[in-house]
Amino acid sequence: MALSNNITAFLNFLAFMCSIPIIASGTWLASKPDNECIHWLRWPVVFIGITIMLVSLTGFIGAYWRKEGLLGVYLVCMALLIVLLLVLLVLAFVVTGPTGAYMVPGRAYREYRLEGFSYWLRDHITGPDDWGNIRACLADSGICPKLNNEYVTAQQFFAADLSPIQSGCCKPPTICGYQYMNPTLWINPTNAVVDADCSIWNNDPSQLCYNCDSCKAGLLGNLRKEWRKSNLILIITLVILIWVYLIGCCAYKNTLTKANSKGHK
User: Fold this and answer.
1) What is the pLDDT of residues 102-134, one digit of tens each?
2) C-alpha to C-alpha distance for 230 and 88, rounded to whole angstroms
3) H-helix or E-strand containing 10?
4) Which residues of 42-69 are buried (b: 16+ CB within 10 A; e: fewer)?
């Protein structure tokens, strides 16, 4: 009868210990310059880690000391956490499904079109009400200026594995035909009217292509890349939590059975 209780206590202790690196990795992810510019997306991993820590601690105490009240609270919280993770996972797959990335001949990096991403992401992140603050944050982050210290020649730059934000915000679109001087200095476009971003590009370090649609697309491409990686963690976490929840239900049933048998005696 006590076997499921002990297993539940052990699994929740492991979940409690695993929540510590989850919180640490979430804090590191939130400190990245590109994520600092989108405040409401900065802390989901930290929030999930803290929630798992609190719920698993409740489950450990309830299972180890046979506290049916705590086990009941634990099961309710665990069910809500599983539903939350399931909703988050479905949302992440839906909004990060479309990609605006496309290959450019002669370039190792990809470039990005804003129209290729989901409408939800475009509306909630690159809309006129939000982009002004994000644009100012990107300009102050130092993401683009550091490229000047990493790449000297055009060959080095064209062979670089640029991040989506660096590709979209720090240089003009390749289709414009700008001549490379350094990673953030480009002159003499040959197709200045082929794309609206071609006329928006500015060699001023505080301007660059931060007002371009390609920069907005690059930011969305960066978010998509990171969230697609996190989807795997969400799937593994969801499977483990469902497994622990089912064992926890057995532990709760056993605890109630033991309490009822004592009451009859």
Assistant:
1) 999 999 999 999 999 988 888 888 888 888 888
2) 11
3) helix 3-30
4) bbbbbebbebbbebbbbbbebbbebebe
Please name the helix (run of DSSP H) or strand (run of DSSP E) that holds residue 187, with its range, or none.
strand 185-187
Within 8 A by CB and 6+ apart from 167, the residues are 109, 110, 111, 112, 214, 218, 221
In this predicted structure, what is the pLDDT of residue 62? Answer: 76
**From the CA atom positions of the chain, what is the Rg in Å?**
25
Residue 37 burial (CB < 10 Å; 0-12/13-18/19+)? Answer: buried
Q: Quick check: 93 and 232 in contact, CB under 8 A? A: no
Q: Residue 55 is which amino acid?
A: V
The first and second tokens of residue 7, run together, are: 């297993």
Gap between the Cα atoms of 89 and 22, Å rounded: 17
Distance CA(128)–CA(105), nearest Å, equals 32
- pLDDT tens figures, 10-27: 878 877 877 777 777 677
| DSSP letters for 75-134 | HHHHHHHHHHHHHHHHHHHHHTS---EEE-TT-SSEEE-GGGS-HHHHHHHSSHHHHHHH
CA-based angle 145:148:152, to the nearest 5?
Answer: 170
